[in-house]
Amino acid sequence: MNLGSYLTKQWHNVVEEVKSTLPEDIHFDFRQHILPLFFPFLAWKDELKKTGTLRADFMAGVIGAIIVLPQGIAFAMIAGLPPVYGLYTAMITPIVAGLFSSSRHAVSGPTAPISLVVFAAVSKLAEPGSDEFISKVLFLTFVAGAIQLVMGLGRMGRYVSFVSHAVVVGFTAGAAVLTITNQMTGVLGVNISSRAAFLETWEQLALHVSEINWAVFSVAAYTLIMSALSKKYAPKMPHLLVGLACGTLLAWMMGGPAAGISFAAEIPSKLPSFSIPGLSAGNFHSLLGNAFAIAILGIIQTIAVGRSIAVNSGQQIDGNQELTGQGLSNIVGSFFPVMPVAVR
User: Would the pLDDT of 134 be above 60?
Assistant: First the structure.
């Protein structure tokens, strides 16, 4: 059976399943009963007429924007991309995912595990931050989104439930360790190869321990401490933004570049521009497997977070719709300077 026949069969099954669940006194209406399954915003668009809903959405958007500022920059740098790419990702993908996903509360954006996988996959093939590196990341974003979209349209969301929670926790913990390892060069102010493997990174750090820039380390430690204190004693404050502001202030007071503390490059004050991802045969050969891994990891994260939120909200999460929403957000995002995403 080819892909077209499979999707046609799945479409027929969806229609029949919906018809079978309708009470006998309700007439089947394609626009009312089928379209909202593929365009979820049709089911809640009328709620935007309520003042309370608009006010709550506005406040959620403001809080989300404040939180994503330091997160977006950090995750982009973990992935080996310029900081602005994290902000572009947080601007574009939540709009598409919000319209086509089933969850009304989860927000899509860059995440640490996916950023780490992107860096590990592409840094072997191109210099981080280079035009070639960015082109390959956009390819990963497009193909990962296409895989997720096909899985969603093929009604494969139910198979994600077979992935053990222990696997997700183990992968997340491993990603956290690798993230810490990759960021130690920035924390200590030591210059080593960005392509070094896990053990090699720690070996090189040990060899260069005498070259630690204590000014850089002080800023990093102070930022971390202030973030932790803010989260504990002022939980309503955006603790990551507080830590970022405190660390920036300390770096400025210590002299900044004069003390060996480099600042992030200036973020362009312009909207993301349209571009075509590099869908070359070479990219398919070298990155297809990584794109599949990113697609699976992204949807596992998405459904895990969506279900944890649904426990409190009482909303039903549709795995197939989440696959479709995340797939479309990655596909659309790949035509702009963004990176692969999942629900954060």
Answer: yes
pTM confidence score: 0.74
Which range of residues forms the domain containing residue 300?
63-163+288-344
71 domain-assigned: yes
d(CA 152, CA 105): 20
**Across residues 249-254, what is the average pLDDT?**
90
Q: Residue 73 is which amino acid? A: I
What is the spatial distance between Cα 85 and Cα 89, in angstroms, rounded to a whole number?
6
Half-sphere exposure of 87 (CA within 13 A, CB side): 15
Q: Residue 249: CA atoms inside 13 Å, Cβ hemisphere, count?
A: 9
Query: Are 305 and 106 a contacting pair, CB within 8 Å?
Result: yes
Backbone angles phi, psi at 33, to 5 degrees: -105, -20
Residue ranges of E strands in 82-149: 108-109
Q: What is the pLDDT of residue 146?
A: 92
| In a domain? residue 157 | yes
- What's the half-sphere exposure (Cβ side, CA atoms, 13 Å) at 319? 17
Length of the chain counted residue by residue: 344
Instruction: Show Cβ contacts of residue 334 under 8 Å, excluding neighbours closer than 6 positions.
Output: 138, 139, 141, 142, 145, 277
Report yes or no on 328 lying in a domain: yes
- Sequence-ordered list of residues with C-beta below 8 angstroms from that of 277, at least 6 positions apart, any chain: 135, 138, 139, 141, 142, 334, 335
Has residue 246 been placed in a domain? no
Q: How many domains does the chain have?
A: 1
